[in-house]
Every structure is written in C-alpha cells, then in structure tokens.
C-alpha cells in the first residue's frame, strides 16, 4: 500500500511545514435543511508581505464520521473574513490530501506533520488514481478559479469519506491542506510573478538547494514557500494575515448514496509520468490568429467500467479551454475558462475566475475500461507562458452501481433541492461557450487598456 510520492509531491511534502490544526470552524444546519450540512472551516493563519510566497501544509478539520461530500468550495479571506482579491493575493493552488495515521503516533503526527516520504505511521490515501504522483492524488484542489467553479456533486452521488471499513485497524483518517498563495501587491511584473518566472524570484536552486536546469525558466520550483517576487522600486506595504476558508457540503452516509471516484488526467502525462506544469510558446504573428493556440494532448484509460458524473478542467491564465473525448472520438466534456472583467474579488479582470463543469445525465456517458480517453488543453500563445497546467478532474461511478442507484435516489433528491436553495447565492459569472468569446473580446480590451497605461492586467 505504500504510495510513491514523487516530484511535485516531494517538493511540497519535503518541507512539510505544518502549523497545527485549523483554528476555527462553524457548522450550519438550519431547521429546513434536514439533509445536507454545510461546515465552514479555516486553515490556521498565514502571513504575506508584498511579493512573498506562502506554500505551507496544514492539518485541517473535516466533517467527522462516515459522510458523503457533495461540494467543496474555498477562498482566501482576511482576518475580518472578507474575500481577498486575486489582484492582491494570487491563489496559485490549494490541495487537500487524506492520510491514515496510526493512532499511537497521532500526537507526533500532529506536531511534526506528514513529511511525505517515509513516515511509517502514515499511509497516504489520495484519490483513485491515474496520476497518483502530484496533484493527481488530491481529493480536492483548484486554483484561482475556485470562486466560480461548481464543485457540487448531484445526488445520489458523493465522495465517501470516513468509512471505517476502509481505514486499517489502529489508524485514523486525517486531512492535510496545502495552500500556495503569492502576494502580488506592488510586484514588478504581475503575470511573471504569478507564472513563477525564476528570474523575477531570483531563484537558481530548488527548495532543497539543488541547482535547477538552465532551461527551467519558470514554474513551481521557483516559487516555493518563502521566496519573493521582485517588487516595483520603492514599493512598501504591510504584512497581511490571511486564511483559507473552505466550505464543505456533506451528508451522513446512507445506503441511498452512491460513491464516486475521482481521477485526474494531466495533459503533461505523455508516457513518462505527470509533469504537472508546462510552458507554452509565443506564436509567430504571421499565422495570426489561427496559429496562436497551443494545443496539448494526452490519453488515459480508467481501470474499470464507469459512468461519468462530473468533469471540469483546471487551467491557468491564457487558458482557452480543455476537452475530453471518449470512445470513437466523441467529445464528452468541454470545460471553458471564465475570465473576470471587474475589480472585485471573484471577478478580477484578466484572471481565470471559474472553469465550466460538465454534468452529463448520469448513465448517458459510459466509459469502458477498454476506452482510450483523449484530453486536449488549449492556451492562447500571444504571449509565452511558464508553469501552466492542463488537468481534467473527473468523477465517475462504477457502472454496476449506477443501475441500482436510480431506483433509490428519490429520497435524496428531496434534500438536494433544499440544499441547492440554500447554496445558490453565488454570483455566477458564467461558463461555457459564449463566455469564452466574451472573454476573448474583453481580452482585446485589456490589451488596449494596458497599452494605454491603465490598470495592469494580464495580456
Ligand atoms: C452546480 O451544478 C449543479 C448540477 O448541475 C446545479 O444544480 C447547480 O445549480 C450548480 N450550482 C451553481 C452554483 O451553479
Ligand atoms: C483546442 O484546439 C483545437 C485545435 O488545435 C481544437 O480542435 C479544439 O476544438 C480546441 N478545444 C477547445 C476546448 O476549444
């Protein structure tokens, strides 16, 4: 069962600075909401000064007991609980991992953390596979698009956690949270800092002190915890105290529910493992505009026959969408970025503030273990970029399960309706299709504004 955690995993886990338990939480269960609970938690506080990167690991709270998770939303907030704009704090990513920890070693674990590699008293659990080293192993995880990416899992499906039958004797299930945030107040080059360009961070060695290859010009290896991006000359500001606030929507597990498995397809996996990040070139203007898209592709197969319940991509600024194709080349999900166009948190101009999610009618998209899935990730190449990503997060149910579940789902649906009523307060900027076109239009406007010396936004 020992899981190998390489590259990305080691990079993060190696320092594994753990700052203790989540410091605050509250549970809401209103009298009308008899089924779905909503628990709001915060990670311990972290601080940032202009230009600085924080990438720490926290042991955090999760709903206790055998439950099904139906939604997981998160955002960076300040001490007063106000949402913090991506203009000030760029949320590069957040990730959650579950571990089984030996009960007898729990205290040590609480103090020292996982430290990744070879702590025999912890067992890494993660998700159901494909890209198990790196972000592919996370149970939940997103980036700047967190505020407007729908994570709701439709009933009767849910991610099952805390099932004592799966937890080895003498172990307990625990959760860790990694938050990678960059304070971009006053930085010299905002796109460059968010893309972790090594020259802007003055980084030549990775966080273990090993020299980076000469051709490594940007990506996570250059913006590890404690590094600092170049500021505009003379810029000064105060240290901020921040939290990651996360809201888990969950339900007590019952036999009416159908567990889903999570798989992550990483477009950088072209046979030799998941590299997580890649760089995109700058297009030559002669081919404008058709040549100004970089398309990467990979293939993957699921280990068992499944039905698709949910799919959404993860991409960075410059994203032009991602697609998943099933057997016979049919597109089964197209996930498009939503770009912000304003100044408030959740609508930051030029940033990817949401990714469209696909909800095929359960049972309508079957994926056989023999099928070869193909994934494409597109980026605009008007500008070359470093450290971009192309992931597809998919949730599937086992094909045999699905047949049983349809008969049983009625009672759960009732609760779902109430939950949706309670949770539908988000301002949705919009997803899919037309929005991309809209984003593109805006994008030209940003370029124009920028050349006219307005607010700095991405180009
Ligand atoms: C998320 O998706 C579910 C399932 O399609 C839908 O019912 C719900 O309204 C969506 N929520 C938001 C906030 O868009
Ligand atoms: C990505 O680009 C390819 C062409 O390179 C195109 O066929 C495909 O439709 C694009 N996908 C999306 C999601 O726009």
Describe this structure as you would to a colleague.
This protein is an alpha+beta fold and 459 residues long. The chain has 2 domains: 7-252, no CATH class; 259-451, no CATH class. The protein is 15% helix and 34% strand. The protein has 7 helices and 25 strands. It has helices at residues 7-15, 106-112, 190-194, 198-201, 399-408, 410-423, 434-451, and strands at residues 24-28, 37-42, 46-48, 53-60, 67-78, 89-102, 122-124, 140-142, 157-161, 171-183, 240-252, 258-259, 261-266, 278-280, 293-300, 306-315, 319-325, 331-335, 337-339, 352-355, 357-358, 366-367, 373-380, 385-388, 390-398. Strands 1, 2, 3, 5, 9, 11 and 12 form a 7-stranded mixed beta sheet that branches. Residues 1-25, 29-33 and 404-459 have low confidence and may be disordered.
Attribute tags:
seven-stranded mixed beta sheet, five-stranded antiparallel beta sheet, disordered C terminus, 459 residues, 2 domains, alpha+beta, 15% helix, binds 2-acetamido-2-deoxy-beta-D-glucopyranose, disordered N terminus, 7 helices, 25 strands
Largest sheet report: 7 strands, mixed
Ranges where pLDDT stays below 50 over 5 or more residues in a row are 1-25, 29-33, 404-459
Instruction: Please report which band the strand proportion falls in: under 5%, 5-15%, 15-25%, 25-35%, 35-45% or over 45%.
Output: 25-35%
What is the average of the pLDDT values? 79
Task: Determine the N-to-C terminus distance.
Answer: 46 Å
Bound compounds, please? 2-acetamido-2-deoxy-beta-D-glucopyranose
The count of helical stretches stands at 7
């Amino acid at each position: 069962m020992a899981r190998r955690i390489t590259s990305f995993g080691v990079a993060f886990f190696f320092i594994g600075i753990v700052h203790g338990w989540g410091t605050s939480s509250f549970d809401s269960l209103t009298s009308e909401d008899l089924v779905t609970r909503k628990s709001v938690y915060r990670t311990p506080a972290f601080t940032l000064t202009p230009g600085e990167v924080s990438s720490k690991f926290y042991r955090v709270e999760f709903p206790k007991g055998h439950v099904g998770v139906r939604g997981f939303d998160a955002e960076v907030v300040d001490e007063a609980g106000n949402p913090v704009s991506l203009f000030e704090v760029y949320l590069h990513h957040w990730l959650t991992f579950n571990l089984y920890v030996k009960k007898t070693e729990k205290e040590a674990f609480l103090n020292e953390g996982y430290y990744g590699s070879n702590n025999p008293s912890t067992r890494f659990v993660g998700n159901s596979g494909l890209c198990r080293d790196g972000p592919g192993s996370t149970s939940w995880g997103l980036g700047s698009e967190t505020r407007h990416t729908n994570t709701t899992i439709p009933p009767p499906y849910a991610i099952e956690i805390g099932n004592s039958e799966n937890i080895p004797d003498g172990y307990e299930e625990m959760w860790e949270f990694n938050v990678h945030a960059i304070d971009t107040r006053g930085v010299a080059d905002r796109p460059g800092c968010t893309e972790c360009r090594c020259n802007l961070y003055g980084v030549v060695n990775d966080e273990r002190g090993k020299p980076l290859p000469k051709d490594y010009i940007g990506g996570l290896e250059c913006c590890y915890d404690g590094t600092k991006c170049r500021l505009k000359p003379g810029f000064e500001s105060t240290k901020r105290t921040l939290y990651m606030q996360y809201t888990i929507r969950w339900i007590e597990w019952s036999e009416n529910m159908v567990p889903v498995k999570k798989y992550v397809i990483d477009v950088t996996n072209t046979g030799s493992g998941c590299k997580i990040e890649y760089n995109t070139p700058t297009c030559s203007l002669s081919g404008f505009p058709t040549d100004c898209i970089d398309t990467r592709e990979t293939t993957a197969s699921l280990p068992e026959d499944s039905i698709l319940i949910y799919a959404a991509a993860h991409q960075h600024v410059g994203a032009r969408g991602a697609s998943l194709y099933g057997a016979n080349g049919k597109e089964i999900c197209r996930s498009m970025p939503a770009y912000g166009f304003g100044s408030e948190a959740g609508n930051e101009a030029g940033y990817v503030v949401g990714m469209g999610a696909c909800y095929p009618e359960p049972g309508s998209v079957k994926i056989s273990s023999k099928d070869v899935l193909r994934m494409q990730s597109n980026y605009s190449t008007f500008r070359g970029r470093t450290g971009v990503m192309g992931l597809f997060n998919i949730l599937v149910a086992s094909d045999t399960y699905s047949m049983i579940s349809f008969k049983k789902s009625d009672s759960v649906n009732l609760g779902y309706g109430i939950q949706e009523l309670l949770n539908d307060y988000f301002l949705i900027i919009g997803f899919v299709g037309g929005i991309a076109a809209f984003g593109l239009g805006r994008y030209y406007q940003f370029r124009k504004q920028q050349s006219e010396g307005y607010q700095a936004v991405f180009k």
